[in-house]
Amino acid sequence: MAKSKKPAGDALPAKLLLTAASAGELAGIEAALATGAAINARGEYGETALNKAAQSGHLAAVELLVSKGADIENKDGADMTPVMQATVAGHTKVVEFLLSKGAKVTDDLLSTVKMKVGILEENAESGMVREEAVEAWKSFFEFLRTARWKQDWPEIIKGLASSDDAQRKEAADAASTCARRRIDISAGLPLLETLLTDADKETRYNAADAIACHAARRDHWSRVIELLEKGDGDVKAAAISVTVAFGKSGSDLAPMIAALRPLLAAELLDLRHDAALALGYAATNGADASSAIPELAKLIDDKESGVRYIASWSFYRLAKFGADCSSVMARLKELAGGDDEKVAGIASEAVAMIESKAGRGAQ
Fold first, then answer.
1. CA angle 49-51-56, nearest 5°?
2. 203 and 128 within one domain
3. Residue at 278 is within a domain
4. Domain containing 341: what range?
């Protein structure tokens, strides 16, 4: 009977290391290393112990191997790095750890996860996959996208300082995305400040958006107010857009009330619209926005249907959360009986809310 062939020399410790890593056996990993196994020894298909541990989801083993100097970017025979293998297998904790140690999020990795999300969505439609699973993978995909933006941030900073108009524009847009994704853009703020007066309007807008988002995230509303008061139309549009976004997500906009009031009379449609929208969210989140009622009332007669709608919606919100809006009752009733069905609908709701609040107050 033929005997099985045994690994010769240092091949045995390497095989033991790979086997232990695949099983997540910490003692086995330590023993294999102690007997001479190279930390980055590769198996039959180019995989290392770290590839094995990551693919199997053994976090403790991954942590141990990395602490011993394992190559976090090793590619096996299928060009899969440890973080790619952990991602495809859905081992999120392993992925988070490897990213914290500098593992790269590549285009191939993002493409693979995006494809998986697409397949899951199709299967969910036919009932083969639960919606919760789809949502979990979507969240994971967004986590990876944010990690990629963090990874690219040093290059984005270089782009902000570029003498090339197109590169600055692209970098400002990327900085805006980073800020919206809660990435710390502090290191790029000085360069973004210089772009507030860039010749390109999109560059100015995105630079302002990034600065305003960064400031609002830290409750530095005074900086957002400065952008609204001193910036040009594009800078103001970005700052008010950020204000609306934070108001919608529940932020306290009380510090912004005084700065929003002048914008209700702005020439630019977007500024009037978003200022009214922000006031509605401010009231919803507990701020006293009643001081803006005189300016907001003028928007009920705005030439733009969309602005009239938002003004009516804001009065509904102000009334619902405590403001006395009886002074605009008559005009809202006229809108409620008007030909613009969308505006009439929300105006009717505002009237009903004002009357309801007045009735409760009289009791």
1. 95
2. yes
3. no
4. 256-273+289-363
* pLDDT of amino acid 34: 95
Q: Cite the DSSP H helix spans in the chain.
A: 11-23, 26-34, 49-56, 59-67, 82-88, 92-100, 107-125, 131-160, 165-180, 189-194, 201-217, 221-230, 233-248, 257-260, 269-284, 293-298, 305-320, 329-336, 341-362
Q: From CA 318, how far away is CA 312, in angstroms rounded?
A: 10
Lowest average pLDDT, out of 8-12, 54-58, 130-134, 159-163, goes to 8-12
pTM, rounded to two decimals: 0.86
Q: What is the pLDDT of residue 359?
A: 64
Q: Is residue 234 part of a domain?
A: yes
Q: What is the pLDDT of residue 305?
A: 96
Give me the helix-helix angle, 131-160 and 165-180, nearest 10°.
140
CATH number of the domain where residue 263 is located = 1.25.10.10
Residue at 82: amino acid letter: P
- What letter represents residue 22's amino acid? S
